[in-house]
C-alpha cells in the first residue's frame, strides 16, 4: 500500500474514532451514566486498529519521507482529527468522572438531649 493510501486509511480510522467519541459524549451528557460495554468494546477494537495503522504509517514514512503537498495535506488532516479526538476524550473523562462519583450523603447531626449533656459534662465538672 502506498503512503498516500495508508494516510487516507489512517485519516478515515481517526475520523471513525472521533465519531465514536462524539457518540460517547452525547451518551454521557444525556444519560449521566457510564457507556455500555458494547460501546467500550467498539472503542477498544478501534484503538487496537489505530495502533496497527500507526505501525504501517511509520513504516511507510521511513521508506519514503513526505515530499508532496498531497501527503502533507493528508498528514495535517489526520493530526487535526486526532487533536479534536484528544480534546473530546478529555471532556468525556471529566463527564465520566462526574457520572461515577457517588454523591456524598449528608448525615444529619445528632442533637443530644440536655439531660445527657448535663450528665456528661456536669459529672466531669464536679470532680
Q: What features would you describe in this structure?
A:
The protein has one domain. 80% of the residues lie in helices and 0% in strands. It has four helices and no strands. It has 127 residues and is mainly alpha-helical. The termini are far apart.
Our estimate of the beta-strand percent is under 5%
Largest sheet: none
What is the count of distinct domains?
A: 1
Q: Fraction of residues in helices? A: over 70%
Query: Helix tally?
Result: 4
Unreliable segments (pLDDT under 50, ≥5 consecutive)? none
Q: What class do helices, strands and sheet pairing give?
A: mainly alpha
Helices and strands, in order, run as HHHH
Shape: rod-shaped
Q: What is the rounded distance between the termini? A: 93 Å
User: Taking Cα atoms only, what radius of gyration do you get, to the nearest Å?
Assistant: 28 Å
Mean residue pLDDT: 84
Give the topology.
Elements: H1 3-31, H2 37-63, H3 69-100, H4 114-126
Helix pairs in contact: 1-2, 1-3
Q: What's this, in brief?
A:
By secondary structure, the chain is mainly α. It has helices at 3-31, 37-63, 69-100, 114-126.
What characteristics describe this protein?
80% helix; 127 residues; rod-shaped; 4 helices; mainly alpha
Amino acid at each position: 500500500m502506498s503512503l498516500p493510501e495508508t494516510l487516507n486509511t489512517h485519516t478515515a480510522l481517526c475520523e471513525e474514532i472521533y465519531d465514536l467519541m462524539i457518540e460517547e459524549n452525547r451518551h454521557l451528557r444525556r444519560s449521566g451514566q457510564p457507556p455500555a460495554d458494547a460501546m467500550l468494546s467498539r472503542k477498544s477494537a478501534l484503538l487496537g486498529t489505530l495502533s496497527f495503522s500507526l505501525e504501517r504509517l511509520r513504516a511507510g514514512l521511513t521508506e519514503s519521507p513526505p515530499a508532496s503537498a498531497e501527503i502533507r495535506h493528508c498528514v495535517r488532516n489526520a493530526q487535526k482529527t486526532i487533536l479534536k479526538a484528544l480534546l473530546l476524550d478529555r471532556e468525556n473523562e471529566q463527564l465520566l468522572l462526574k457520572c461515577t462519583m457517588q454523591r456524598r450523603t449528608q448525615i444529619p447531626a445528632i442533637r443530644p438531649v440536655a439531660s445527657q449533656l448535663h450528665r456528661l459534662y456536669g459529672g466531669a465538672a464536679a470532680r
